[in-house]
Amino acid sequence: MVVRLLFRALIMGPPGSGKGTVSDRITKSFGLMHLSSGDVLRHNIKAKTEIGLLVKSCIDQGRLVPDDVISRLVLQELKSIEKSSWLLDGFPRTVTQAESLGKAYHIDTVVNLNVPFEIIKDRLTSRWIHPSSGRVYNTNFNPPKIPGLDDITGEPLIQRNDDTPETVTKRLEAYEMQTQPVLDYYRQKGVLETFTGTETNKIWPLVHAFMSGKLSGGHKAAGKA
Fold first, then answer.
1. How far, in Å, CA of 90 to CA of 106, rounded?
2. Cβ atoms of 181 and 190 closer than 8 Å
3. What one-character-per-residue DSSP string does 65-89 give?
4. Residue 167 confidence class, pLDDT cut points 50, 70, 90
5. Quick one: which of 31, 92, 187, 211 has the most CB atoms within 10 Å?
6. Alpha helices per DSSP H over 105-199
7. pLDDT-derived band of residue 219, with 50, 70 and 90 as boundaries?
8. In the β-sheet with 8-12, what is the strand arrangement from edge to edge?
9. Beta partners for residue 86, in sequence order
10. In 3D, which of 125, 124, 123, 117 has the Cα closest to residue 179?
């Protein structure tokens, strides 16, 4: 009898790197369960769970959520899918969190998306929104017919506060400072695979080929024997 092992992967990348798109493609192509730590946090805050209230309190006070709180929350969620192969997105963000995860699960691979910050800044700062409908425009590849105005209503478009050049620069710098030690941690363990590029559609075939090779070695996908 062939024993098929479960596959556990992480995906990392700065905001605007195309991480959401690549995560979606990985989970659909390879049948992995997808867990986003951001989604888990938002769900617990909305449901007003004990941890959710604690997280909300930290956020409201502008404090970082303690490592042990985030780790407890994510590990608790992973227990519900521990019989499946999975892709974890948004966690760990510190070496302490990575160590907590490593005590509970063996991580097979870490997919790291390395997109130049200038490209990301250009992507994010080109994004404009029509607030009442949620329609999104990009001045580079999906511009409004009349600059600054919504195509349908003619109402003014706005830029989200976290999409302004100054805020995007701060977010990217904070990500790099916080995440570099985690990347180094997984590099030393020999499981980090970095994919560099400027377009998601050009990075994706490389990620797909890499994951195909990894998953052909006797691992099983979600819910499959």
1. 17
2. no
3. PPHHHHHHHHHHHHHTTTTS-EEEE
4. confident
5. 92
6. 117-125, 165-188
7. low
8. 33-36, 86-89, 8-12, 109-114, 192-196
9. 8, 33
10. 117
Q: Which of 46, 109, 50, 113 is nearest to 76 (CA)?
A: 50
Torsion of CA 217, 107, 92, 72, to 10 degrees: 120
pTM, entire model: 0.83
**First-to-last CA distance in the chain?**
12
Give the β-pairing of 86-89 and 219-220. Answer: unpaired
pLDDT in tens, 68-92: 999 999 999 999 998 999 999 999 9
In which band, very low, low, confident or very high, does the pLDDT at 217 lie, cut at 50, 70 and 90?
low
Cα–Cα distances (Å) from 15 to 116, 118, 156, 170, in that order, read 12, 12, 26, 11
Q: How far apart are CA 55 and CA 18, in angstroms?
A: 26
Longest dimension (CA), the chain: 65
The per-residue pLDDT of the chain, averaged, comes to: 89
Q: Which residues share a beta bridge with 219?
A: 5
How far apart (Å, rounded) are the C-alpha atoms in residues 8 and 110? 9
Using the predicted structure, report yes or no on whether residue 59 has a pLDDT greater than 60.
Answer: yes
Enter the tokens of residue 2. 């062939």
**Active-site annotation, residues:** 19, 93, 127, 160, 171
Cβ–Cβ under 8 Å, residues 169 and 87: no
